[in-house]
Amino acid sequence: MTKHRRGAAPERSRLAVRDLLSEAVAGMLQRPARSVLTALGTVLGVGAFIAVLGLTGTATSQIDHRFNSLTATEVSVTDVGPRNAAARDMSFPHNADARITRLNGALAAGVFWSVRLGPQQAVRAAPVGTANSVDARTQVIAASPGVWQASQARFVEGRAFDGFHETHHQAVAVIGSATAARLGITTLRTHPAVFIGDTAFTVIGILKDVERKPELLMSITVPRSVAERTWGAPTDEGAQMLISTRLGAAAQIADEAAVALRPDHPEYFKVTPPPDPRSLRTAVSDDLSQLFLLLAGVCLIIGAVGIANTTLVAVLERTGEIGLRRALGARGIHITLQFLTESAALGLVGGLVGTSIGTVVVVTVAAAKQWTPVIDPATLAVAPTLGLAAGLLAGMYPAWRASRIPPVEALRR
Amino acid sequence: MTTTLHGSAVIEFRGVGLTYPGPPAVHALHPCDLRIADGEFVTVVGPSGSGKSTLLNIAGLLDTPTQGQYLLNGIDTAALSATRLAALRGERIGFVFQAFHLLPHRSALENVELAMVYRAVPRPQRRARAAAVLERVGLAHRAAALPTQMSGGERQRVAVARALVGEPSLLLCDEPTGNLDSATSASLLELLDTLHRDGMTIVVITHDRQVAQHGQRTITIRDGVLHDSAHRSEAA
To answer: Measured between alpha carbons, how far is A65 from A277 in angstroms, rounded to an integer?
Structure first.
């Protein structure tokens, strides 16, 4: 039997970190099923966090890819020059396509505009007088030959009109496959024609698809020279030019286009370069992230409330144990630390599992879509910490309450 | 009333009382003097609600008296902070409860070990000491058993082992045989007798007159008032 020194108060009771951790783990393992369910909220919150950021990153990267391959190589030029009797009818010169394609980095360029037809100038598949073949929905577009290459047009049958047709004012037309079907044109072997007003245009090509300017698919496109001669220069809306460039050359072409077209009046044109990919990406990610991060935050809060609730119930259930520990020399802070460590450990475990599940979701979705999964490593590092923080916050009140239970009260229960 | 036994006092009450403020105020323990000397085996008897547990809670530093001065091992407990009181309680006092208060998911050995966790005793040392104390109470073969796998008598012995493992100055037992049958109770009392013979100071609270007979001295408490204590000879 040890005899303690009379009159000498002992040192403060101490709880080693290792013992604190092992007590917390033992506390969690006492009721494994409940611990799993408690951590589930954090798992969902952190999992949603990772999935949202990962999927947003992955989708953004995909947007980048598409943006680079198409949008980044497109420049638009709009005619904003004066349209009065003194001025020229159209600001684009007749050799506008050639002027632009001579620029270094430009692949193709073409002028186009919507033709405004008069009330008696409907599109028909047959000569005037055959009322049942009127197609009022079909739009007529005037275009220079360069439009076809610039829009990356592909044909079901036939071909695009070219410089010869343009120069010699050939009354030919290219139509979209849907328009062809509506007009009853199924083959070019019969050299079909469409009638716009009382002018016949021989259809020389049926479009299958275009990468740019999808309105071409729903229209009848005729050479620019023929349109100018037949209907005059564009009136309401000015003509536009579509320029296809090499990757990385768009900004330079945008700077030079107006001067190249009209050195005397570059102000007649409004040039629209492609948007900055970084700002586009940021805008897309911001929109998605803000919405879904809010959702992940809500999940995390629900998880934290779940932990708080369960820890509080555990405190009430384990009041006798708290009393025993106090009788064995535990200080209030030891009780606080024990429950806080348990809830933090639950949060951390939930965070780790949630991070793993979120990563699997991102990889699975990316694999299904044949995308490249993109997850910022910093996100993976932060996510379990979020779980830990949620657990810590959730455990604060129950742990504080546990330490406030008087030992005598605790032992009575 | 003050004991007349010689030797240094483990417990010394000087006008100690506990009143719960009202209205109406409740005198759980009227101011009293009490001296329990080192190595004494004292039993406290009284009916339910008489103040036995209040006396034990004050003696065990689980509750604080509202009047008087309590010296444990010569230390004035009123002068100590809650932190020092917790340390004093953990180091000098061993508790045995009627309800055992064993952690159900821990083995007998781990339950005994728990008493040393808050004294930062290294785990290997804890294990060795817990095993030695379990052997002393005759439960070495049940070290790995969970409380749910043990009989009431075995559980109470584990609780005694847990109380002893910290080598306290004082063993406070609150109705230790309350949940045991008579044969198991007799066995536990034998264990307490043995500990007493080894020099342990023991205070047992009981409402069982037979259990009370095991003490050298019996203190009676009724309505919060301590009554004459009767001394018995060692032979008795």
So the answer is: 10
